[in-house]
Amino acid sequence: MRWTFLAGPVVCLALSLPRPAGAQPSEAEATPPSVDAAEEAPKPPTQAGTSAEDSPAPEATPAVDTSSADATPARTTVVRGRTPPPPESPERRDPTGAITVIDARERAGEARDTAELLVGSVGLAVQDSGGYGQSKSLVVRGASSNGVLVFLDGIPLNGAGGLSDLSLIPAALVERFEVLRGGAGARYGSGGLGGAVNIITRAPGPNLRTSGEVTYGSWNTALGHVAATGPLLGGQALVLVHGGRSDGDFAYDVDDLPAVDGNPPVTERRARNNAQGGGALLRYRRRLAGGSRLDALAELSVENRAIPGTVQNPQSTGDQELGRLALGLRWFGVLDGLGQGSARGFFRRDALEVTGRIPGAGGAQRHSVGGVELEGRRPLGEHQSLTVTVATSGESVTQAENAQAAAWWRASVMAMDELRLFDGVLDVVPSMRLERVGPYWLLSPKLGASVELGRGFGLRANAGQSHRAPSFLELYIRQGTLLPNPGLKPERALYADAAAMWRSGRVSREDETPRWSVTAGGFAALYENLIAYELYPPLMARPYNFDTARVWGLELEGEARPFPWLLASTGYTWLRTENRYGDPRFFGKDLPNRPRHKWVGRVRAGPDWLNGRAEVLYQSAQLINRTGSLDLPSRTLVSAGASSTFLHKPEVTVSVELKNLLDVRTFDFTGFPLPGRAVYVTLAMALEPGASSTATPPHEPHASPASPVP
User: Does pTM surpass 0.90?
Assistant: First the structure.
């Protein structure tokens, strides 16, 4: 594949990076704690009459950049309270939303990819093609993968087909995840039928630090990265380079005669399941005069993977070459007399090319999206604030076969009002987004409320409407036997959820993370005008609006930190789906690939010099077709591991990870086998000149900093 398509955007990024300035570094830059650490501490007034709540503004998309030294615990359910949250917290962007924050750094040494780090979150299921580098996507609260928005530091990652492939985001880049469950249209725009996930990349630090990590394990899998961070040009910079590969030739069991009762399974070996790739991340941030801040990001990734096909239809040839370039530039600060302000520009370009004799591959494809976004937040008296966002962007896709191309623009305006009543006990948050996506007008209202009951108890509830405009591929691009349909209407979701929360105690005087926290809630949604493909004689298929589905369920999360060296968490999801399409073959049946039950339990214990962990994931049986004639059996996956940081100058950590200890041979959606038992060993090193030899590594559970949400 030719990568010349990257040259122009790279030049643009170079020209947009801040130049050295003659001004002296601000007070915040001269202080050892990071910028975001200072924002999470009690804030002095930024100007006369300005409170801590009036510090720099949040973003319209879920772009949160918090320093690696100050982030939320491994699995934190956001709990509402009276104290104003930090300006960049997910609560500020969606004050009543069902949000879970997962700190990836507390999973260091576990040799897990991005999808595995997310799979433990309630209300969320991963659709996995099996093995390192193979496609992985998300289903949130029953919404299809193309109805879940995924962002990288606020840059949208959903492709021309509406999907986002998590396998293209290596875990080495990730600092934490913010998972919003429920309709996300009012706050994040078209596509958020079931929710939104923001992947926060590693942030630069104020002190010089170099680090590296290498992992080797089953099926000749090797992963590694090196990183360096520290002061640069009056600000802070981070450079990270990563790479990995795997043969992916694991064994799996298959019934070669499914029509014969009692036929014993035979063992096969996965072929053409290899993948390799690499990339780089560059981040730069700088404090400007007046307390505002500038952030720049560049991310590049390339990958080549074989196309193994399903068990029933294995591929003997064919490869996918994929690439992505993402650029972002963001400013936020306080505007005199106007409140908080934020401005962002972003650009992303994806490249996809399928080689080999794959019917209907469609040739090389390029998908580009870029835009700008402005947001302001202004207090309206002591108990009210108004947030307004204006955004516009352009999007295009080109495909080599038949010189197909399509492009459109987006524009939106969003307003959110926050009313704090009864001395902050009750918060009422109405919001609405009016959006133009290509030829479609979309209106996404939402009403949320939260109540602080005292003694650690609270309630929250939300109701609203979200949309997903048809994707470019569904509308305009022919792919093999799949025909487009330019007459499609947007999908729509009507949703509601409510939850009760309780927390008690805190880890320490310095750390306000609760020792005990529990959240229990329910949700319901009606999905209308869902898009599905229907056979079009003689051998073609075309998408139409005809599906309708109902979804409802329960979610339970709990976390306990009874001792500084012990962390335990659990999450349970009960999901009920019902196909409402009038065809009697499908009517009333569960939607495929939506398991009714999922339970995850996890414990991690021990000091940094030796700690152990264990995790159990149970997932019930699920259908794999709409008629209900085929299903996948339930599965229970057990994993365990241990880590030891036995040196501190330099810091050296050795970890061992055992996945799928019981060697469960199972499949995921549409017949992709999943790997069996696997073993991985990880060696990590870090050197920070001047650091104390007694410093505790930040990824250990007992060293977790306080959650930025009170």
Answer: no
